[in-house]
């Protein structure tokens, strides 16, 4: 019997090894060749595509078009499936890959008709931009063809790899609009529904300015003074957890040369996005000739587009944070508003087609909110939304050159932070901004619609070389209070993060790259200190019962540190209080297909006003008093933590509760491949409302610090590798340095691979 069992176990091991060998064998067929020679009719002169130990692509070419070809070739080799998802997501074409499971998302995206808009915009671009996109697309397709075999994602889905087209690069930029600006019109919808269900006073109360204001000119918005509105018609029900919308945004800041030892300006930029495998950005350096001069630009590119998004040409260095100006309005249609219906066919894998019917108007696509028709007028629907003007930043020699480009660039509006080697530093809003003069967070009557929506605003605020030598943004209001009335609030961050960055910048008089990196990793919990004090006072009312929690709070380290249990208690307690206070409102909005999700980050000032004044109508029906309500919030906190992590309080440490988990999209569907596909997990470090932003799969998608003219100490750290292929030597390259906070160099190191593509002639 023992021999039989032994043989069975041996057979299982052999079969396991054999199946593993088959998997690795199939995967190895789709590994790209990183060395060799080739020919193409798409290049005019030879193009070199080299890679260093991190897999950073170094492109050497004679012209910008040939450089675009080389970048496309590298993207096609390393990231085609990611690019395919980006274009399909924006176009509403994921169902062709994933079947009916993606239909809901595709219909949501087809509402915007971005494939058609990309095709129209492409035809209007200057010939030079069309050729740039064509060269890039040819590079993508030839890089993909060089691989020879479809990547495992296509083998698993059974889908075909469709060639890259020029319009697809515009769709990739549109994908960033969806990621960065959809919360703006979703927030407006929630505010419209709140006004209708409650009052305009309720809207003003919930969106009142906070004490965390960090505008660059120091201006403050007028405080809310209309009193606490009555909260009517609360009903007893299970408390709902109100999801918080992740802040698609970033930190950036800069100092002038007066505050650096080199005399050059210095910029820091870390863009906060959802993180998956592969990470969204791709390290690259482009070397090419322009007007008889050598250009070298180094930074991160977005696979699918031919530009360096954030980086430096050694004359200037630049970075972005999401601007959150008001770039969308819901137009309330009247009986005279003309509408019409169009059908959007959505392809499925088996060749079948699902038709999605869409109502259009002269103002934009139409949606029914509380059974009334509203048209969405959004910057992404306008002709100026997308173009190739970002490439012009590569030729800027000074801050002034970069500022001159900003108003014409077709991307989602960003806070451009730019410095130059001469010591200047500046901020300006870059990207599409509607020229209409009166933005609204509530609906606009059709009779008041402005034709200026069809024009891009060219006159926009900027600040150059402030007297204090410091600039900062963090997705909160950066413009003056006066300009805020003109450009509106598209869902600004609260301002706690920006305030902390500003305050840190005034703690020093001289800065080096290491100082900026330390600020990027600053996880001090300044924002939660009032919540810590509130909870500690509450628990000390019964010291015997709450001693272990009191001990955790007294040793919370005042930071989102991985070993802090006290931080977890305070963070979860705040969430529980908000859920209890607003659960009835969330329930009411849910009945109307709405949610407070996009308003939740506005609520902090209102919540403290409620806590301090304790109005009776804001007591949740399941409690009898405010004291009982606040105690109930902590009880719910403990219950949920116990359900999720057990009753051992040591397992409630923030590093475990907020563990960094960066996964491949297919890993959840195929757990057996998770170890092969995912990045290693890492202890949580950081949170919202502080410079070191990090969630379980969200955070700084790159960390960039540079002084143009002095790039030997410049930093670029990314939470993942260059290649999307799990067997590639670059699949996880750089991840451990990112997690450990090491100073990963921006500039390429020793080159270890090289492909040369020569003209066919």
UniProtKB/TrEMBL annotation:
EC number: 3.5.1.-
InterPro entries: Ntn_hydrolases_N, Pen/GL7ACA/AHL_acylase, Penicillin_amidase_A-knob, Penicillin_amidase_dom1, Penicillin_amidase_N_B-knob, S45
Coiled coil residues, start to end: none
Entries under SUPFAM superfamilies matching the protein: N-terminal nucleophile aminohydrolases (Ntn hydrolases)
UniProt keyword terms in alphabetical order: Hydrolase, Zymogen
Superkingdom: Bacteria
Top-level enzyme category: hydrolase
Any one Gene Ontology molecular-function term assigned to this protein's record: hydrolase activity
Family: Belongs to the peptidase S45 family.
Subunit structure: Heterodimer of an alpha subunit and a beta subunit processed from the same precursor.
The protein, known as: Penicillin acylase family protein
Originating organism: Pseudoalteromonas distincta
